[in-house]
Amino acid sequence: MSEPASAVERYRRERKQHFQSERRDWRLSAWTCLLVLVVVGWLLPPTMVLVAGVFGIWLVAGSDSYWIRMIVTAGALFPAFAFEPLAVGYAGMALGWTVLFSVVAHRIAAWRWHFATGRNQFTLWNLAGLIFACGLVFAFVRLASIAYEDSPGPVFFDRVVGTCYLGLCYSVMGFPLLIPPSLRTKKLYWCVGGILLGGIPLALGVLASLVNPMFLLLLPVFLPLIHAAGAFFFWAVLFPMELGGMFASYELPAEETAS
User: What parts of the sequence cross the membrane (predicted)?
Assistant: First the structure.
């Protein structure tokens, strides 16, 4: 009996080592991909809105400590101010909207499916992290306001609405990462795809048609193509991050999984 038991134990140990090695490889590729993405964002500041979306999802659902996520995000976005403050201010607002929509979606999903969302207690270290995060937010607001101070009011309002739209799309794309893996069914992905490729373009077309009726015909046709390309890029970055263990693994209670 000892030999089969030892063989099973050896198999489990080898399988665990293989899994850990594979996860390290995916994590290394994810960090490399993020580094390339950030450098491209520095050289081409308009693409920083895509960087902001990725980091927005990671800030909400990442498995690393709050400090690491905040410092890495700040280190990725702040240097781009040397190239184009306007574009980075735009990315900062997109980051804020992404975090806001993702937190709301995460809480609603946790209430609906009854999974844990983290600790209900906090330490002074967590409080210091919150203060640091608020400082980053106010710094982005201040720098963005400097970049926008020469722009007329309607232009700034358009930027706010545009970043709100981007944040909503990013949170929809990243929604599967906000819930336990056991809930990521084909039906869920179909719903996410339907909202992204059908619901949002149609709703935006209806609202824009109040300004120009042609938008009701144009936006539901062209926006799904843009959304599909954006989702492909988005998940090309998030997929190695997920396999590398960079997102928290929320699990359902035992009574939920048993049912």
Answer: 28-59, 66-83, 89-110, 122-148, 160-179, 188-211, 217-239
Q: Is the pTM for the entire model greater than 0.90?
A: no
Query: Whole-angstrom Cα distance, residue 100 to residue 227?
Result: 20
In this predicted structure, what is the pLDDT of residue 258?
Answer: 43
Alpha carbon distance 59, 72 (integer Å): 10
Q: Identify any residues that bridge with 247 across adjacent strands, giving them in sequence order.
A: 62
Nearest CA among 44, 172, 156 for reference residue 90: 156
**75 to 35, 42, 60, 80, 178: CA distances (angstroms):** 11, 11, 17, 9, 24
**Do residues 250 and 116 make contact, with C-beta atoms less than 8 angstroms apart?**
yes
**Spans of all domains in the chain:** 27-181+239-247
Q: What is the pLDDT of residues 9-26, one digit of tens each?
A: 776 776 777 677 888 888
Sign of CA dihedral 202, 207, 213, 214: negative
Q: Residue by residue, what is the 3-state secondary structure of 160-218?
A: HHHHHHHHHHHHHHCHHHHCCHHHCCHHHHHHHHHHHHHHHHHHHHHHHCCCCCCHHHH
